Amino acid sequence: MEALRVEGLSKDFGGVRALQSVSFSVKAGEHLAIIGPNGAGKTTLFNLLGGQLSPTAGRVYLFGREITNMAAHSRVHLGIARSFQLTSLFLNLTVLENILLALQGTRSSRFQVFRSATAYEHLHTRAQELLDSIDLRGKEDDPVHALSYGEQRKLEIALSLASEPKLLLLDEPSSGLTTAESADITSMIRNLGADVTVILVAHDMDLVFGVAERIIVLHYGEIIAEGTGERISADPRVKEIYIGEEAEGSA
After folding, report:
1. Do 179 and 16 meet the contact criterion of CB atoms below 8 Å apart?
2. Partners of 13 in the beta sheet?
3. CB within 8 Å of 121: residues ≥ 6 apart
4. Cα 178 from chain centroid?
5. Angle of helix 95-105 versus helix 149-161 axis, rounded to 10
6. 138/21 Cα distance (integer angstroms)
7. Of 119, 129, 132, 196, which is the most buried if we count CB atoms within 10 A?
8. What does the DSSP assignment read for 164-225?
9. Of 17-31, 134-148, 235-249, where does mean pLDDT reach its minimum?
10. Chain centroid, CA 102 distance in Å
C-alpha cells in the first residue's frame, strides 16, 4: 500500500525556486531518508508535506487522498505527525505533563471541560507506555528543562507519537546529540512499529544508513539520486556533491 505520493511538487519564494518538480512515493511502513547539502530544499519539502507551506505547483496524496491544500492541523487528524529540528517543548512543565498535553490534544475530549479525574486514566496508561518507549520512566516528574538535550529530543519524538500517526516526519532528529544519544535515537526509530511510515531529513549519515530502507538525495531543489544506501554511496553525482561540500568547508 502507498502511504504517501508526491507529484511534481514545486515551491517558489518570490523569484527563487526552492523546489523543482519533485515526485516520489513511500510505501506504508517504509523508512525513507531525504538528504542533501544545505539549501537543497529539504526543509521546504517537509513544510509542504506537513502543511506549513502551500506548493506553487504539484499535488500531495496521503493513502490515496489528496491533501495538497489541507491545513496542518487537519493533516494531523488524518495521521501525519512531525518533529521539528528545534525542540518545541514546555520546558517548565514536567515530562509527564508534556506527554499528557500531547495525548489530550489529539482526543475529542479536549473540548469537554468538566470531566472526572478517572476519565483520564487511559491517558496516564498511554503516557507511561510512551515513557517506556523512550527510556524516560522514572523521570516523569522532572521538569523538561532539567533533561539533557538528548532526552529532550527523545521526548519530542514521543510527543509526535502521541497522536498515533500513520506517517511520521522527523526533521534532523539527531541534531546536536552526542554519538551515544544519536545511537539511542537510531534504535528508537528502528523499533517503531510497521504501522508507522517514517520520512526523515538528516545530515547524520550514521543515522540515515542505520534506519533508512531507501534514500532520496536533493540538490538545488531537485531529486538527483534515489535508492538503497549502497546505491547512494556509490553514486558519482552524490560523491561529487558531498566531496565538493567538504572541500569548500575545509577551505
Report:
1. no
2. 16
3. none
4. 19
5. 20
6. 48
7. 196
8. --SEEEEESTTTT--HHHHHHHHHHHHTS-TT-EEEEE-S-HHHHHHH-SEEEEEETTEEEE
9. 235-249
10. 16
Give me the sheet containing 65-66, strands edge to edge: 16-27, 2-13, 57-62, 65-66
pLDDT band at 28 (very low <50, low <70, confident <90, very high): very high
Q: Distance between CA 178 and CA 150 in Å, rounded?
A: 8
When mean pLDDT is compared over 49-58, 94-103, 145-154, 167-176, the highest value belongs to: 49-58
Can you list the alpha helix ranges (DSSP code H) found in the chain?
Answer: 42-50, 72-78, 95-105, 121-133, 149-161, 179-190, 205-211, 229-234, 236-250
CA proximity to 6, closest of 235, 250, 240, 216: 216
Cell numbers found for residue 204: 547524520
Say if residue 119's pLDDT is above 90: no
CA dihedral for 200, 103, 113, 92, sign (positive or negative): negative
Predicted pLDDT of residue 227: 96
Q: What are phi and psi of 222, to 5 degrees?
A: -125, 150
Radius of gyration of the chain measured on its C-alpha atoms: 19
Distances in whole angstroms, Cα of residue 110 to Cα of each of 80, 92, 119, 140, 230 = 19, 22, 12, 22, 47
User: What pLDDT is stored for residue 194 in this prediction?
Assistant: 87
Burial code of 172-210, b = ≥16 C-beta within 10 A, e = fewer? bbbbebeeebbebbbebbeebeeebbbbbbbebeebbbb
Q: Would you say 232 and 215 are in contact if contact means Cβ atoms under 8 Å apart?
A: yes
